[in-house]
Write a structure and sequence with these properties.
Blueprint lengths: L1 H15 L47 H5 L3 E9 L2 E8 L4 E6 L4 E8 L5 E9 L2 E5 L11 H15 L10 H4 L18 E3 L3 E3 L1
Antiparallel strand pairs: 1-2, 2-3, 3-4, 4-5, 5-6, 7-8
Length: 201
């Protein structure tokens, strides 16, 4: 019996020390003792008067208040055996649309950035992958001339039936080993090649 009473007292004391299960993101509610706020988010550190103190790092984006209460202004959706089409627009400036089938689709979307500018993307998606286009997207640098020349040479070789498998083929390049006729100024038989030991003369 003493064991049960002791165990109950320990359990109650331990449970009283557990943190609250309520979590509010930084600066989103009162700083009562029942709410958890990450370090430097709930006290008056540095003499600040706000809930976050002098180290306030809460999310304060310009569109935050508008986005919190955004509503869907229009939404359309069609799906049938020939493909799909959808579009929607929200009150905070997000617009999107896409149409296509199982093999190919195209569409676009736009949103208002934190800087107040509207960012638009148009895209196609299919066998070639997802291909977006937008004025704000980074552009790859031009391909160097040496790479373009090598790609052109490869295409010409393949058209002529020449394929490079990555292996060395001296008979194709015209190079001959010692001991083969036509090597250097020596005559045939000037050396022998063994794959394990190399050349012997």
């Amino acid at each position: 019996m003493k064991f049960i009473v002791s165990f109950t007292i320990i359990a109650v004391a331990t449970a009283a020390k557990l943190p609250s299960s309520n979590y509010l993101p930084p600066n989103q509610g009162s700083s009562s003792s029942n709410s958890y706020l990450p370090p430097n988010q709930g006290g008056n550190i540095g003499g600040g008067s706000s809930a976050g103190g002098a180290y306030d790092t809460g999310n304060r984006r310009p569109q935050q208040e508008i986005e919190k209460n955004a509503v869907i202004l229009q939404q359309n959706q069609e799906i049938d055996e020939n493909g799909f089409r959808y579009s929607y627009e929200t009150s905070n400036g997000i617009r999107a649309e896409e149409a296509g089938d199982a093999s190919q689709s195209q569409g676009g979307f736009a949103y208002k950035g934190d800087d107040g500018n509207v960012y638009s993307i148009t895209f196609t998606a299919g066998e070639g992958g997802f291909r977006p286009q937008g004025a704000h997207l980074p552009v790859a640098p031009p391909t160097p001339e040496a790479i373009l020349a090598a790609l052109d040479r490869n295409a010409k070789d393949e058209a002529a039936g020449i394929f490079d498998d990555g292996q060395y083929h001296p008979e194709q390049s015209g190079n001959r080993r010692p001991g083969q006729s036509g090597y250097g100024s020596g005559s045939s038989g000037s050396g022998n090649f063994n794959a394990n030991t190399g050349y012997t003369y």
